[in-house]
Design goal:
By secondary structure, the protein is α/β, with parallel strands linked by helices. It is built from 6 helices and 17 strands. 25% of the residues lie in helices and 34% in strands. Strand 9, helix 2 and strand 10 form a beta-alpha-beta unit. The relative contact order is 0.14.
Length: 294
């Protein structure tokens, strides 16, 4: 399992009865998690929370706030510098960050940093698709990469830009694009542009800026195939994340291994997880497939 165990500003305190108890900086949130199907005794720490997201039997849910600011920040240290993320509770239980992805930030940041140290004058170009609020973008830029950040939501791109600025990356080489990811890749093929690394974090279902429908089971493999065509001659890595139940690690491994079989590299895939402080166990949080150049 890829374990995001280097956080200081975040932790999963405990899990029980469909919920996880989390510390985000100095604030404690109680949020639902579909993986938490056990019902274990809750300690007194569950009584002192700043906000609780209540699920609805009709779908969705709503926040109940006790003492939580509209927005706050947390940090994550990488060897190249400290990342800063703005958080706020919004829409369906989210805060604007998936902390388990720190395991992947560590992985590709080390690859980028190594490439930059070996060839300081050669730019490392990274494409981040379905880039959300920019966790992967700021991590890659902090390591020295030139990043193209693509997401269909203007609001998410604005939020990501704020995270980059707060992380001291105002002058970093980052392109901020509001676009449909599949159509953008198709245009990049026609334009002849290439990237040394690709990151994608596709949703199970979504819509593009003009109402384009995205269903991951139908679209993910053709997108990976198209992305192969915009990899550079000597690419560094390819990362695919999945929060969709049907896309298990073995499926991610198979797709990457099939599409990238002509390149000299290795493929691995596994669950991504967060340690749970109270029990010492690990909460699974999706899966990642990784290809790395040999």
């Amino acid at each position: 399992m890829y374990l995001a165990d280097k956080w200081t500003d975040y932790e999963v305190i405990d899990t029980s009865d469909g919920d996880k108890l989390e510390r985000w900086g100095k604030y404690i949130l109680q949020r639902p998690d579909p993986q938490v199907i056990w019902n274990t005794p809750k300690g007194p720490e569950w009584k002192h929370i700043n906000a609780h997201y209540h699920r609805s039997h009709k779908g969705g849910g709503e926040w109940e706030f006790f003492d939580l600011p509209k927005e706050w920040t947390i940090h994550y240290p990488l060897p190249a510098g400290r990342l800063t993320f703005h958080l706020k509770p919004f829409s369906f239980k989210h805060t604007g960050l998936f902390p388990e992805q720190a395991a992947n930030w560590e992985w590709f940041s080390s690859i980028i940093s190594k490439a930059k140290s070996e060839h300081p004058d050669r730019p490392v170009k990274i494409l981040n698709l379905f880039a959300y609020t920019g966790g992967a973008t700021v991590a890659a830029a902090m390591a020295g990469a030139e990043v193209t950040h693509v997401d269909a939501s203007k609001g998410m791109v604005t939020w990501a830009h704020e995270n980059a600025n707060s992380s001291g990356l105002e002058n970093a080489h980052i392109r901020w694009l509001v676009d449909d990811c599949m159509k953008f890749v198709e245009r990049e093929i026609r334009r002849g542009n290439h990237y040394d690394g690709i990151i994608m974090d596709p949703p199970s279902y979504g819509r593009g800026p003009k109402g384009e429908i995205w269903k991951i089971e139908e679209k993910i493999f053709p997108l990976i195939q198209d992305c192969r065509r915009i990899l550079s001659d000597k690419p560094l890595f390819f990362l695919v994340n999945s929060y969709t139940t049907g896309l298990q690690p073995a499926v991610l491994h198979y797709m990457l291994g099939t599409v990238l079989k002509d390149l000299p590299g290795t493929v691995e895939a596994d669950e991504v997880g967060l340690p749970v402080t109270k029990t010492g166990l690990v909460l699974p949080c999706g899966a990642s497939g990784r290809w790395e150049r040999m």
